[in-house]
Design brief:
The complex is a heterodimer of chains A (488) and B (556). Chain A contains 18 helices and 18 strands. Chain A is of the alpha/beta class and 488 residues long. Chain A has three domains: 229 residues, Aldehyde Dehydrogenase, Chain A, domain 1; 189 residues, Aldehyde Dehydrogenase, Chain A, domain 2, CATH 3.40.309; 31 residues, no CATH class. In chain A, the strands form four sheets. Chain A has a seven-stranded mixed sheet with strand order 10-13-14-9-8-15-16, with helices on both faces. Chain A has a six-stranded mixed sheet with strand order 5-4-3-6-7-17, sandwiched between helices. In chain A, strands 1-2-18 form a three-stranded antiparallel sheet. The radius of gyration of chain A is 27 Å and the shape is globular. Chain A starts with a helix and ends in a 9-residue tail after the last helix. Chain B has 20 helices and 18 strands. In chain B, the strands form four sheets. Chain B has a seven-stranded mixed sheet, sandwiched between helices. Chain B has a six-stranded mixed sheet with strand order 5-4-3-6-7-17, sandwiched between helices. In chain B, β13, α15 and β14 form a beta-alpha-beta unit. Chain B is globular, with a radius of gyration of 27 Å. Classes of the chains: A alpha/beta (488), B alpha/beta (556). Chain A: It comes from Brassica napus (Rape).
Chain lengths: 488, 556
């Protein structure tokens, strides 16, 4: 650990020196690094797919959709838009201050830390880095030790493609994270659980470091079967794809549970079965299309959740597990007890509880009684219900009639609220996430207004009163001595 | 329990009568009693300029408080705080604060309150800080009023969802960004602009549709009690509250779950606030301070530059402002000329005897008076005074004081001065000033006086600060179009104008999809063909996507 401390010190010193030299501020440097990220992913597509398969059993198509392709697109967007993003924003100043001008400049924070997570180890590492680089920062990445092959690959590839004096990778677990957090950073970007998020923020407070916390939560899906009865096939497909097709439900924006009216529950369950079979075949374990559970610890957590006798009794589909292969079958529960652990912690696995309500309108109250999730999904064509969801509940995002794809839409800010996190990124928001907006007012020394300065008198008070109201005509009268009192 | 509470365990402070909530709404008069020296020292706890660590400062507090009599039960404890938050959350959950009508009516009431109560507000500010009426009007009332009017005018626009373009990947869909209120928020304000720094964030919180609790500073007791009284008279009591008090009350408040904490004050307490917020994952805005430099080139219009520096120092709450000029950097050759100009203009502004001038605020309390006095008397500093230096302890007045080249290691150059002392640091070339600024933590504001465009650009590029004024001091803060906030040691987050609204809103991404155009390539079982189409789609290569798509359908 002493050696690690030394490495961290050394890396930080080097990054700070690089930042102070001003190199990372130039748009040319930023573009070169972004281009290199794209190149890195392109050149190493196979290797990256391999490590994702080793760490998580992700199929290469799934890996490409959720990670490699996503990262390349994100970097391309940044590359294409950077010239637009870095332009200072002009702002209007009141006439009174003529000839002053105002503008806002985005300046890099300095040296930033990115702590990523194991479920999408490539995209959750590179995507924030793209923002940090686009904004002109030096950046250190610590990828998760729970996806060791991805972490090792990034540690190997990043130095051979990117500016090693400005962009660094350090591998390790919680002990290394602890060392990193003892140092002062200019911004910390964390993806993970609320529990660790609290520790990160408390450590950041010590140095007054701003944080972005991308956490998770129990993301509900509302099915209003009355209004989408014609499209139920698509609904079930989309939910199945979102739950089991993306890292086996080990995603922060995955569906955690489904809310549906009681009368429709059995129909719904019957509709799920063939879809799951068409996705993963008769034996999902061998399909190669279902990601595995990341570690033994996480497997045991899931099996504990499922082995609660009351929960076990609620299994209506699936439920088999294989500890050796870290495999959990796509599983559906019907109305597990609301006080069970599975209904109170983020499931983060291929188990889908269906919670029944008498009336789908009750879903609003149900969601409101729980911490704010990262995403709410709702399948409905009922405008009234849409409006209620939007205005009465709170969540990081809301997606109607689909799942997960809000993540792909980089025109939308991505980030949580309350327990699901703070701060946002993606697209331009990534750039903003790693920039300080510096306000600048440029005055001129040529003109000066006497009324701004002491000694104070009534004339000056009246002058300022009018000036604040931008009542220019009255100001002229006042200055000509044509008016005495000024109405408040 | 927060660290703040731990300090408090060492010394419970009897805030004579200063500790009740609006709901108790008892005798305002008793607040006049709340001017004990203990309270002042406790004030140092909540607004300090020393960037050092908790232990050191808390022991300072402890020392100054050793004379405190008996520990006394605080009227507002954790239990009361929890009740208050519950009550406000219940009101928030009814949805009443979300409506445009509610927000507008509250904002209009604030505007009305400022108009009708101008006199009593100005008087309270005079009582707390001897703030000259016009300065109070200029810096606090008009500023707050214009923020309020802007919010009233723009609210509809701010609240409108923003429609954004979606990409090919998510086609067919439409997307919006909807602003939603965060919930129940806490505003902790400071004593130096006790009206502005309380009401301006509250305006933002209300515009965004939140329920809000304001904790004004106990170091400005007259304004604090006036705010409590006025808020309960003018605003919706079920959703907008004032809690008065000092460290124990703040601690009780910080232990609650908020949806945002907005804090104005010193960096030390800023850390405590953020650490407390971390426990509940509450986002924070920290408006802190720092040593704001003014770099003065030799090509400037001397008179105008001198006046603007004076405005940014002494006419701005007598240097007790987070964006006030802390020190000046200029060239060795130019320094004497600049100092002469400053002296001349000081005389026109405040007369021969500035200690008697009504146009300059006093030092807030005897604790800060002593702090500034000892700063001035430090070894190697006292002999650097070239102007002023007179003090009047009973009136808490210190005359505008200029010093030249005080040692870098003196506390005057290490801490935020927050008072009427202006050190002038000389450098041989003006560019050397950049290094002086960069060797210190990032300030809330940095000022430059020059007509040299090249130097202006270099300054903007090479100096990091919350905001900047070129040939101006302080004024950038009144521009509602500019975000106001710090970076690094000077704070986190920004507000003013639309930025206030955004600070208290969550930007919710909303994606609308239809059921048309659902393609199988999104779903397992995964095949190489699906990957090919996805690849083309993700790179927005529509032509490639179509080709691949047809290729794929042929194969299947």
């Amino acid at each position: 650990m002493e050696a690690m401390k030394e490495t961290v010190d050394q890396s930080l010193r080097e990054m700070r020196e690089t930042f102070a030299s001003g190199r990372t501020r130039s748009v040319k440097w930023r573009k070169a690094q972004l281009g290199a990220i794209i190149e890195m992913v392109k050149d190493n597509e196979e290797k990256m797919s391999d490590v994702l398969f080793q760490d998580l059993g992700k199929h290469s198509t799934e890996a490409f959709r959720d990670e490699l392709g996503f990262v390349m697109r994100s970097a391309t967007t940044a590359l294409n838009c950077l010239d637009k993003w870095v332009v200072p924003r002009k702002s209007n100043l009141p006439l009174l201050f003529y000839p002053a001008t105002g503008k806002v400049i985005s300046e890099p924070y300095g040296t930033v830390l990115v702590l990523s997570s194991w479920n999408f180890p490539i995209s959750l590492s590179l995507d924030p880095m793209i923002g940090a680089i686009a904004a002109g920062n030096t950046v250190l990445l610590k990828a998760s030790e729970l996806s060791p092959n991805a972490s090792a690959l990034l540690a190997k590839l990043i130095p051979s493609y990117l500016d090693t004096k400005a962009i660094k990778v350090i591998e390790g677990g919680p002990d290394v994270a602890t060392i990193l957090l003892q140092h002062q950073w200019d911004k910390i970007f964390f993806t993970g659980s609320p529990k660790i998020g609290k520790i990160i923020m408390a450590a950041a407070a010590e140095h007054l470091t701003p944080v972005t916390l991308e956490l998770g939560g129990k993301c509900p899906t509302i099915i209003d079967h009355h209004s989408v009865s014609k499209d139920m096939k698509s609904v079930v497909k989309r939910i199945s794809g979102g739950k089991w097709g993306s890292c086996s439900g080990q995603a922060c924006i995955s569906v955690d549970y489904v809310l549906v009216e009681q009368s429709f529950a059995s129909t719904l369950i019957d509709m799920f079965k063939p879809v799951i079979r068409s996705f993963f075949g008769e034996n999902p374990k061998e399909s190669g299309c279902l990601a595995k559970i990341v570690t033994k610890k996480h497997f045991q957590r899931l099996s504990r959740l499922l082995n609660d006798p009351r929960v076990k009794a609620s299994i209506v589909y699936g439920g088999s597990m294989d500890e050796e292969k870290l495999y959990v079958e796509p599983t559906i529960l019907l109305d597990p007890p609301l006080d069970s652990e599975i209904m109170n912690e983020e499931i983060f696995g291929p188990i889908l509880p269906i919670i029944t309500l008498r009336d789908i309108q009750e879903s609003i109250g149900f969601i409101k009684s729980k911490p704010k999730p990262l995403a709410i999904y709702a399948f409905t064509k009922d405008e009234n219900l849409k409006t209620r969801i939007l205005s009465e509940t709170s969540s990081g995002s809301v997606t109607f009639n689909d799942l997960m794809i809000q993540y792909m839409c980089d025109a939308l800010p991505f980030g949580g609220v309350g327990q699901s996190g703070m701060g946002r990124y993606h697209g331009k928001y990534s750039f903003e996430c790693f920039s300080h907006e510096k306000a600048i007012m440029e005055g001129s020394l040529a003109m000066d207004l006497e009324a701004r300065y002491p000694p104070w008198n009534n004339f000056k008070l009246n002058f300022i009163r009018l000036a604040f109201r931008e009542a220019y005509f009255k100001l002229v009268l006042l200055m000509l001595g044509l008016t005495k009192g000024v109405r408040k | 329990m927060t660290k703040l509470l731990k300090i408090n365990h060492h010394h419970t402070i009897p805030f004579a009568g200063g500790l009740y909530r609006t709901t108790t709404r008892s005798n305002v008069a008793s607040l006049a009693l709340a001017t004990s020296p203990f309270q002042f020292s406790s004030g140092y706890c909540s607004k300090t300029c020393i960037p050092s660590r908790l232990k050191l400062v808390s022991s300072t507090c402890y020392a100054t408080l050793s004379a405190v009599v008996k520990p006394q039960e605080s009227a507002f404890d954790g239990k009361e705080a929890a009740l208050l938050v519950d009550e406000l959350r219940t009101s928030f959950n009814t949805g009443r604060t979300r409506s445009y009508e509610w927000r507008i009516s509250q904002l209009q009431n604030i505007a009305k309150m400022i108009d009708e109560q101008e006199k009593s507000i100005t008087e309270a500010l005079y009582q707390d800080l001897s703030k000259p009426e016009l300065e109070a009007f200029l810096a606090e009332l008009s500023n707050t009023k214009s923020s309020c009017m802007l919010a009233i005018k723009e609210l509809k626009n701010w609240m409108a969802p923003e429609t954004v373009k979606t990409s090919v990947t998510t086609f067919p869909s439409s997307a919006q960004i909807v602003s939603e209120p965060l919930g129940v928020v806490l505003v902790i304000s400071a004593w130096n602009f006790p009206f502005l720094l309380s009401v301006e964030p509250v305006i933002g919180a209300i515009s965004a549709g939140n329920a809000v609790v304001l904790k004004p500073s106990e170091i400005a007791p007259a304004t604090s009690s006036l705010l409590a009284k006025l808020f309960s008279e003018y605003l919706d009591e079920t959703t907008i509250r004032v809690v008065q008090g000092g460290v124990p009350e703040t601690t009780a408040l910080l232990d609650q779950k908020w949806d945002k904490i907005f804090f104005t004050g010193g960096a030390r307490v800023g850390r405590i606030v953020m650490a407390a917020a971390a426990k509940k994952l509450t986002p924070v805005v920290l408006e802190l301070g720092g040593k704001c430099p003014a770099l003065v080139d030799s090509d400037v219009n001397l008179q105008v530059a001198a006046r603007r520096i004076i405005t940014g120092k002494w006419a701005c709450n007598n240097g007790q402002a987070c964006i006030g000029v802390d020190y000046v950097i200029t060239t060795k050759d130019f320094a004497p000329k600049l100092i002469d100009a400053l002296k001349t203009e000081l005389k026109t502004f405040f007369g021969e005897n500035p200690l008697k001038s009504k146009d300059v605020s006093r030092i807030v309390n005897s604790f800060h008076f002593k702090r500034l006095e000892s700063m001035m008397k430090e070894n190697g500093v006292a002999n650097k005074i070239v102007h002023g230096g007179q003090t009047m302890e009973d009136k808490l007045k210190i005359s505008p004081t200029i010093l030249v080249d005080v040692p870098e290691e003196s506390s005057m150059m290490q801490e935020e001065i927050f008072g009427p002392l202006l050190p002038v640091i000389t450098v041989s070339k003006i560019e050397d000033g950049f290094q002086v600024i960069r060797s210190k933590p990032k300030p809330l504001a940095a000022y430059l006086f020059t007509d040299n465009k090249v130097l202006q650009n270099r300054f903007v590029e090479n100096v990091s600060a919350g905001g900047m004024g070129i040939n101006e001091t302080v004024l950038h803060v009144t521009m509602k179009d500019l975000p106001f906030g710090g970076v690094g040691e000077s704070g986190i987050g920004a507000y003013h104008g639309k930025f206030s609204y955004e600070t208290f809103s969550h930007k919710k991404g909303v994606l609308y999809r239809s059921f048309d155009g659902d393609s199988d390539l999104r779903y397992p079982p995964y095949t190489p063909e699906k990957k090919r189409v996805l690849k083309a789609l993700l790179s927005s290569d529509i032509f490639g996507a179509i080709l691949a798509f047809f290729g794929f359908s042929k194969d299947s």
